Amino acid sequence: MPFRSELTGSIPDIVDELLSIEAFHPWIVYTFTGVLDISPTATSTGQENSLHNGSETTGRTALVVIAHHRSDSLTAHTARRATAQLEAAGYRIDLLDLQAEGFDPRMTVEDQPEWGNRDKPYSAETQEHMRRILAADVVVTVFPVYWMSVPAILKGWIDRVWNYGFAYGRSKPRLAGKRILWLGLGGIAADDAALPDMQATLEAQLNTGLAYYSGFAHSSVGLLPNAEERRQRLDPAGNFYLDEAAAGAQRTAQYAEFDRRAAEFVEEFLAADRVAA
C-alpha cells in the first residue's frame, strides 16, 4: 500500500530567525523541530499556463509532470491516462513534459541556494516552474524508476525548482497543504523479492525526504512493476535473468493489469482528496 502522511501543525517564529542566519543549514532546524511547518494555506493561483479544461471543472488545477525522453514511452502513456482521470474528476490540467519543454536539470550558479538569503531571485526558468507548482492544488509525477530512484531530469527539476526559500527554509512553507502522487514505473517483476525494498526506498526519498520536508499535506508513491516486456529477476545467488518478451494474449494481459493498477493508484489519490475536502 502506498505511504500517506496527513500533516498539520505550526512552528514558533524563532524558526524563521534561525533560518535567516547566514550559513545556518535548514536541516538543523528540521532535526530540532521534527518539521518546519505543515499548516494548510491558501494556494497561490498566479497566471495559469498550458491548461486543458475538463467538461465540468472543480476550479482546481493538477500539475502533471512527465519525466521521460520519449513521447511514445509507457511512461508517457501512463501520464496520458492519469491526465484523463484527473480531467474526468474535474481538474484543469497543467501538463509539464520536462523533456519536451527542454528543461535543463543541471544546477547553475544562478539557482544555487544562498543560506543567508531565502528570498534570492532564482533564474527566470526556475521561477516559472515555481509559479506552476504554486498554481496547482495537486501534483502528479510520472517517471521510470532508475536504480531505485528518479531519473536525472526529475532529480534536477527537484534540485533547481524545489529550492531554498520556496520548498523549504520557512516556518510556513509555500507548498503547505498541497498533495502529490508519485507514479514510478519499474522494470522489476511483481514477484521479485527486492520489490518491497524498492517501495520503501522510494517512500523514504519522496514521501519523507521531499514531500514531508516541503510541507505537503499528503504524499503517496504508486510503484508499478512489470513495466518491461521482458521480465527481470534475480535468483537467491544474485544471478540476473531476463525472460523472453511477453507476446500475444500474455502481453495484452500484462499491460491491462499494469493500466488497471496505475488507474487504481490515481483513483485512491483522488478519493483521499475528496475525503479531505
Automatic annotation (TrEMBL):
Superkingdom of this protein's organism? Bacteria
InterPro entries noted in UniProt: Flavodoxin_fold, Flavoprotein-like_sf, NAD(P)H_dehydrogenase_qn
Its EC top class is oxidoreductase
Pfam families (alphabetical): Flavodoxin_2
- UniProt organism field: Nocardia uniformis
Q: Can you say what this protein is called?
A: NAD(P)H oxidoreductase
A GO cellular-component term linked to this record: cytosol
Enzyme Commission designation: 1.6.99.-
